[in-house]
Design brief:
The chain is built from four helices and twelve strands, in the order ββααβββββααβββββ. The chain is α+β, with helices and mostly antiparallel strands.
């Protein structure tokens, strides 16, 4: 692990108000590649995703492994907003590591929802979170995590450095158990 951290407040009563409540670890594939089977699995996953997404492996970030416990979530966000080290993310590969939990769906509110831009200022995170209740599964596209499945989606408009505002997505509250995933981002 390169880094591990708990995101969000310590008091569970405050969790609903926090945009993100989860534990996160970063795995550097080149560092652990020589550490046996785990390193080979991470490296293999990165190579396979690079091949499927047609992005060079050299453009991949370290793998992020988020863990969501009961009532943990990540409200609507873009994977390429904010700090300069993530602005160049063009593609996200979100892998679900298991499905032995309740809740925790991933929702893209603008997908299959042509009226979303008219309903809300799609360029404003606060408006998106307020309009779509931080995370919901009734509108847009919702994916229930299934072990071994991968959601692959672009975060920039084709052939530009402009954000794709339709890439807003959220991880809804886990109701029981623990949700484990892996994020691979390509620049």
């Amino acid at each position: 692990f390169v880094q591990g951290r708990q995101v969000g407040p310590g008091d569970p009563g405050d969790k609903a108000k926090q945009p993100r409540t989860s534990s996160t670890a970063w795995i550097n594939a080149s560092t652990i590649a020589s550490s046996g089977q785990a390193g080979r699995l991470v490296t293999s996953a990165q190579r396979r995703l690079a091949s499927r997404s047609r992005r060079p492996l050299a453009h991949a970030e370290n793998m992020q492994v988020p863990r969501y416990g009961v009532n943990d979530h990540y409200h609507y966000h873009l994977d390429n907003g904010g700090s300069s080290n993530i602005k160049g993310r063009v593609l996200t590969a979100l892998a679900y590591l298991h499905d032995d939990f309740e809740g925790g769906a991933t929702n893209w509110p603008g997908a299959n929802n042509a009226d979303a831009a008219e309903q809300v200022n799609i360029r404003n995170v606060h408006a998106v979170r307020e309009h779509f209740a931080r995370c919901q599964v009734e509108r847009g596209l919702s994916v229930a995590p299934q072990q071994g499945s991968v959601a692959l989606f672009y975060t920039l408009l084709p052939n530009t450095a402009e954000k794709d505002w339709w890439a807003w997505h959220a991880s809804c509250d886990v109701k029981a158990g623990e949700k484990w995933a892996a994020n691979f981002w390509f620049h």
